[in-house]
């Protein structure tokens, strides 16, 4: 007799999705100037969730003007007053967290377990943290009375829609900037619900403007001459384009881009926890995480043992309905992303790497990819170099700590890395040599609003989170 | 299904050749990161077990209970009442499964044996100067012999935690071997580590391997007599140990968390740990037990709720 | 007409013409690049004429090529590991040593700066003194910046979490055009104080103080390759540095605010997402410096590790 878990779906009734949404400009939901709309679908079922206004160039201009108008009053408010708005927002997010978790799961495809236990608590915590900074900026180490920059143009990705919004908006508002934010075209809904939260919180008109759209909307926002600050999270290719487009201007830029994180497991690692860390590292959010530990570097002497344990563990992952509370692996965010993952995985096979996928049945509708390992991978393989942004782990081996570090750093990226060993001095020595902005030792994929996050090299520049995260929004 | 075999497993004869060899072996086991272990146990604790799965889990949990009374005030009457409860946990519903065993002190083993005749329920007896284990080896062995002769099917021994913490692993090992020999073919041996006293997870992993090498049929967390007893993380760690031991030797060992498991919710969390760590092979009362007393009534109330749709109350389950 | 024996080269030329048989012929200096701790000529074999503020010929300076830039990047990359791995205390000692060596050659730099920038002796002396003091200022920062820019983060979980600033790598520096010495020191010192290595493109019209500084650096215990000094046309050398895939950051100060060169360099720098420090208009190099130039070329690395409790019995239950 086996222990079969009965379906345990979280109730969808907690969220009320309207059939259509406008742009949120100057405190009002409005239609796009040219009346264009686009549909957002649930990636686990391909069901259309809502129809959303598509912001064009003129709408970008309206939004930036609204933000500019709001800037003077907002930046002149005492920090303690701005703080209270942010505290209100944090509290309303906590109150509405179940609703937002279900919404995010529907629009993004990630498991409710993650939106409920990771995304939403972090979103609220982020607003709570930066709320407290608003009246303490004199003490932040950027001189007395540091000034905001003005209007921030922010473009966020689809992998953690509401969390990335929080990472962008909370520090921007705390420091006295106003915001125009473009959510990703596949996940616009939580940002539009956030607009409603801003209204509930009584936030002055124009301080936050939300303009859904595709890449060209983002480009128009980033390129708008009256934007003073650009914050972007997304692909390295787009990030480079933004870096070029702002050349010669005074726009301050922070970029949080791609990664190919190495998760290094030494022979003296706490092996069961390392297996969990590897799983968390690459299968959290279906691997659609810029800081994913997508390269497993395992010491050759324990490679077989570790891979056996890993495969055994992957076989217990539960893939399916993202709203089911027992689901570990949800849907891939879009058909396009799924196609990209499949293409890289096929390249991996074509290049001779050995492919293994966890035995699980994929639902017939929606976008799905089984947790997958590639073994016999070397630094020369595409799957070891390109960011896949999906549930695909490339396994490489090493013999010595020197070799591990050399391989870990042998990438154009530099966002994250993991170290697994029980030897303290080795952790510190390896952490010291890794060229990565976040190093998780004997853990992985941990986030906190107090902890600065951001990359070296082509993973971008600037830091989000913590005291460091204020700098990006201050004229210093 | 793999079966237990006499110790030590041939793969590890060298490990137990001397005190120093045993120390090297135990200290060479992979370390445990406490935060990671606890995080994994907590994550599995968020599994949502509903409807049919819950019904299955409740009946399975009832069937895995070592219904226990270990009090200075135990009397034959008390023990007989407990045996009756174990045989028919819910008098209003004869489909309720029986418990796995009744667990008593050695001097009550004969009473329990008689009361359980024909039920299929095992008699488990604690022994070896339970719970402290502070007696000379001959005394401990005599304790075991008494219990076995009184009809105990299972012996729950305590290890010498003092010797373990002093690093005298071979002494602990040899004591288990001697008790195992005393049990012979007549009784299965559960080895209690008193994990709360071993304190660290590294120690719990070492004790698990030491116990398995010495011939334990079951490894068991605790006596229920100290502040910290069975927990999800320490049970998860022991499940990992039996999983790894079977992978290396082919020998399957049982696991018994004991003490502190009082609610259906808790019990189901442990069953999820079993299910997702060692799988279906251990989802049977031959390989997994709960050392508990008050847990049973909570399981029964939840069982009634599932069948009637109403919440039950303590007046609708029996007090024993 | 100077009667002193340590005449400037420009003076010496005229002197030679007029007093050819009365005076000893002075020895000219051949100015060379400073790359990898050595003093090579430009691989291109080219030089260009350097004139003082009145248009008088001072010397020929190497006209660096793109290959010189490439060689300098190789030297800087090679030096990065040891220099970034040196203790902050050690780096501070070396920067202070540079100040000591400069102080010892003060008169020479006063003359060089006076010639290069058309300053009076006394104003040139003030500039050189300020440059020495600037090395001292940054020497003291090496072992303090991590305490200012980094620190522990109180995360909401059983984890130790520490942010530490680290040097970003090889930094190309387009040095200020007008302030050929104090400006140069002000952009160079903070870059190496934090453990970066650098390729500096000196002031195009006044490169000689930079090349003489190379001689000081070479005798100040500074490992070869930490600072590499190129002279020539910024518009020729800087684009190859800005586009170089093994350069991590670029300081555009000398490219000039609002210029096409600065914009083009920033565009080229985007190819590998170099950290870019944009030029600002009208910097007063004599003013006290903040920490901005130190932090501009630092990365923040944040390390997490579980803490947990002492034992299983005191843990999360």
Automatic annotation (TrEMBL), chain A:
Q: Quote the PANTHER family the UniProt record gives.
A: ALDEHYDE DEHYDROGENASE-RELATED
A GO molecular-function descriptor: aldehyde dehydrogenase (NAD+) activity
Q: Which domain of life is it from?
A: Bacteria
Give the protein family: Belongs to the aldehyde dehydrogenase family.
Q: Kindly state which keywords UniProt assigns to this record, in alphabetical order.
A: Oxidoreductase
Residues in Aldehyde dehydrogenase domain copies: 29-475
- What EC number(s) is this enzyme filed under? 1.2.1.3
By what name is this protein known? Answer: Aldehyde dehydrogenase (NAD+)
- Which segments cross the bilayer? none
Q: Which InterPro entries match?
A: Ald_DH/histidinol_DH (IPR016161), Ald_DH_C (IPR016163), Ald_DH_CS_CYS (IPR016160), Ald_DH_N (IPR016162), Aldehyde_DH_dom (IPR015590)
Specify one Pfam family: Aldedh
From TrEMBL, chain B:
EC number(s) on file: 4.1.2.4
Enzyme category, top tier: lyase
Q: Which GO terms describe its biological process?
A: carbohydrate catabolic process; deoxyribonucleotide catabolic process
Q: Which UniProt keywords apply?
A: Lyase, Schiff base
The protein's matches in Pfam families, at most eight in alphabetical order, are given as:
DeoC
Which CDD domains is this protein grouped with? DeoC (cd00959)
The protein's annotated catalytic reaction(s) are:
2-deoxy-D-ribose 5-phosphate = D-glyceraldehyde 3-phosphate + acetaldehyde
Pathway annotation from the record: Carbohydrate degradation; 2-deoxy-D-ribose 1-phosphate degradation; D-glyceraldehyde 3-phosphate and acetaldehyde from 2-deoxy-alpha-D-ribose 1-phosphate: step 2/2
Gene Ontology CC terms:
cytoplasm
**Alphabetized GO MF terms:** deoxyribose-phosphate aldolase activity
Q: Which InterPro entries match?
A: Aldolase_TIM, DeoC, DeoC/FbaB/LacD_aldolase
What is stated as this protein's family in its record?
A: Belongs to the DeoC/FbaB aldolase family. DeoC type 2 subfamily.
Protein name, per record: Deoxyribose-phosphate aldolase
Natural source organism: Streptomyces candidus
Q: Upper taxonomic classification of the species? A: Bacteria, Bacillati, Actinomycetota, Actinomycetes, Kitasatosporales
From TrEMBL, chain C:
Q: Which SUPFAM superfamilies match?
A: ALDH-like
Residues annotated as region Disordered?
Answer: 1-22
Q: Which Pfam families match?
A: Aldedh
User: GO: which molecular function terms?
Assistant: oxidoreductase activity
Q: Which InterPro entries match?
A: Ald_DH/histidinol_DH, Ald_DH_N, Aldehyde_DH_dom
UniProt keyword terms in alphabetical order: Oxidoreductase
Q: Where does the record place the Aldehyde dehydrogenase domain?
A: 43-276
What protein does this entry describe?
A: Acyl-CoA reductase-like NAD-dependent aldehyde dehydrogenase
């Amino acid at each position: 007799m086996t222990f079969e878990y009965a379906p345990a779906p979280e109730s969808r009734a907690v969220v009320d999705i309207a059939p259509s949404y406008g742009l949120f400009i100057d405190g009002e939901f409005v239609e796009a100037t040219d009346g264009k709309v686009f549909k957002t679908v649930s990636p686990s079922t391909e069901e259309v969730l809502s129809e959303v206004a598509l912001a064009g160039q003129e709408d970008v201009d309206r939004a930036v003007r609204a933000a500019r108008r709001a800037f003077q009053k907002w930046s002149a408010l005492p920090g303690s007053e701005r703080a209270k708005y942010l505290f209100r927002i944090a509290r309303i997010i906590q109150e509405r967290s179940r609703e937002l978790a279900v919404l995010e799961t529907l629009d993004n495809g990630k498991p409710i377990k993650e939106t409920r236990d990771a995304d939403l608590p972090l979103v609220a915590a982020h607003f709570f943290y930066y709320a407290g900074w608003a009246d303490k900026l004199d003490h932040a180490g950027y001189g007395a009375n540091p000034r905001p920059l003005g209007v921030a143009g922010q473009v966020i990705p689809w992998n953690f829609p509401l969390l990335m919004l929080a990472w962008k908006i909370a520090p921007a508002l705390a420091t006295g900037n106003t915001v125009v934010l473009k959510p990703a075209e596949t996940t616009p809904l939580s940002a539009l619900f956030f607009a409603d939260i801003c209204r509930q919180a009584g936030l002055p008109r124009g301080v936050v403007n939300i303009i859904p759209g595709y890449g060209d909307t983002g480009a128009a926002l980033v390129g708008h001459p009256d934007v003073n600050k650009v914050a972007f999270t997304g692909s390295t290719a787009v990030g480079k384009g933004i870096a070029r487009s702002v050349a010669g201007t005074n726009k301050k830029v922070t970029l949080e881009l791609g990664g190919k994180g190495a998760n290094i497991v030494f022979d003296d690692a706490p092996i069961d926890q390392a297996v969990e860390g590897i799983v968390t590292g690459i299968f959290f959010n279906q691997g659609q995480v810029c800081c994913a530990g997508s390269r497993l570097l395992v010491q050759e002497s324990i490679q077989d043992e570790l891979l056996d344990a890993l495969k055994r563990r992957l076989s217990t992952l539960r893939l399916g309905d993202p709203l089911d509370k027992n689901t570990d692996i949800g849907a891939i965010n879009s058909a396009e992303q799924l196609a990209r993952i499949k293409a890289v995985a096929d390249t991996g096979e074509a290049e001779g790497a050995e492919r293994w996928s966890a035995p699980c049945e994929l639902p017939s509708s929606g976008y799905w990819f089984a947790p997958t390992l590639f073994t016999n991978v070397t630094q020369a393989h595409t799957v070891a170099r390109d960011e896949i942004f999906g549930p695909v782990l490339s396994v490489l081996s090493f013999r010595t700590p020197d070799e591990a570090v050399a391989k870990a750093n042998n990438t154009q990226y530099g966002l994250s890395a993991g170290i697994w060993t029980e030897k303290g001095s080795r952790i510190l020595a390896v952490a010291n040599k890794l060229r990565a902005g976040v190093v998780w030792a004997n853990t992985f994929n941990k986030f906190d609003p107090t902890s600065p996050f951001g990359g070296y090299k082509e993973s971008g520049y600037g830091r989000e989170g913590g005291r460091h995260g204020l700098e990006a929004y201050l004229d210093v | 299904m793999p079966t237990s075999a006499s110790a030590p497993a041939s793969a590890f004869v060298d490990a137990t050749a001397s005190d120093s060899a045993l120390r090297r072996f135990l200290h060479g086991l992979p370390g445990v990161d406490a935060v990671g272990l606890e995080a994994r146990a907590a994550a599995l604790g968020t599994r949502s077990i509903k409807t049919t799965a819950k019904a299955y889990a409740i009946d399975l949990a009832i069937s895995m209970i070592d219904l226990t009374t270990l009090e200075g005030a135990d009397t034959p009457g008390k023990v007989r009442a407990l045996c009756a409860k174990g045989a028919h946990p819910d008098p209003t519903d004869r489909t309720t499964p029986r418990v796995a065993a009744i667990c008593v002190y050695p001097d009550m083993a004969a009473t329990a044996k008689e009361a359980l005749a024909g039920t299929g329920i095992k008699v488990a007896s604690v022994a070896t100067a339970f719970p402290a284990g502070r007696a000379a080896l001959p005394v401990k062995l005599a304790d075991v012999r008494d219990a076995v002769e009184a009809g105990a099917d299972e012996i729950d021994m305590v290890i010498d935690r003092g010797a373990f913490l002093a690093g005298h692993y071979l002494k602990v090992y040899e004591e288990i071997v001697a008790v195992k020999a005393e049990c012979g073919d007549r009784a299965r041996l559960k080895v209690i580590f008193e994990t709360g006293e071993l304190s660290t997870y590294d120690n719990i992993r070492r004790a698990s391997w030491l116990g398995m090498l010495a011939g334990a049929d079951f490894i068991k967390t605790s006596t229920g007599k100290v502040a910290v007893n069975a927990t999800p993380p320490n049970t998860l760690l022991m499940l990992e140990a039996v999983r790894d031991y079977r992978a290396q030797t082919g020998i399957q060992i049982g696991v018994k968390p004991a003490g502190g498991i009082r609610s259906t919710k808790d019990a189901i969390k442990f069953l999820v740990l079993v299910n997702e760590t060692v799988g279906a092979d251990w989802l049977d009362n031959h390989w997994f037990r709960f050392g508990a007393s008050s847990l049973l009534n909570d399981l029964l109330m939840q069982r009634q709720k599932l069948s009637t749709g109403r919440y039950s109350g303590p007046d609708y389950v029996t007090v024993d | 007409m100077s009667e002193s024996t340590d005449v400037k080269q420009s003076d010496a030329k005229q002197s030679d013409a007029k007093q050819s048989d009365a005076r000893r012929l002075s020895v000219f200096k051949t100015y060379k690049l400073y790359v990898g701790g050595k003093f090579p000529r430009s691989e291109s074999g080219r030089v260009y004429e350097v004139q003082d503020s009145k248009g008088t010929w001072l010397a020929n300076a190497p006209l660096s090529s793109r290959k010189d830039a490439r060689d300098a990047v190789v030297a800087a990359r090679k030096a990065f590991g040891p220099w970034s791995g040196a203790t902050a205390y050690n780096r501070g000692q070396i920067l202070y040593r540079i100040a000591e060596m400069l102080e010892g050659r003060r008169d020479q730099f006063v003359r060089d700066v006076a010639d290069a920038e058309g300053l009076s002796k006394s104003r040139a002396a003030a500039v050189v003194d300020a440059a020495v003091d600037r090395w001292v200022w940054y020497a003291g920062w090496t072992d303090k910046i991590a305490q200012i820019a980094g620190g522990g983060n109180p995360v909401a979980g059983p984890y130790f979490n520490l942010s530490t600033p680290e040097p970003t790598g090889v930094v190309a520096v387009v040095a200020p055009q007008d302030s050929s010495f104090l400006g140069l020191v002000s952009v160079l010192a903070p870059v190496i104080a934090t453990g970066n290595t650098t390729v500096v493109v000196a002031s195009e019209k006044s490169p000689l103080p930079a090349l003489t500084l190379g001689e000081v650096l070479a005798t100040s215990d500074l490992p070869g390759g930490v600072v590499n000094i190129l002279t020539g046309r910024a518009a020729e050398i800087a684009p190859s540095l800005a586009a170089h895939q093994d350069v991590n950051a670029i300081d555009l100060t000398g490219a000039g605010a609002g210029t096409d060169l600065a914009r083009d360099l920033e565009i080229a720098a985007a190819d590998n997402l170099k950290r870019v420090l944009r030029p600002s208009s009208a910097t007063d190099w004599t003013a006290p410096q903040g920490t901005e130039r130190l932090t501009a070329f630092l990365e923040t690395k944040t390390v997490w590790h579980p803490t947990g409790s002492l034992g299983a019995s005191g843990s999360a239950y």
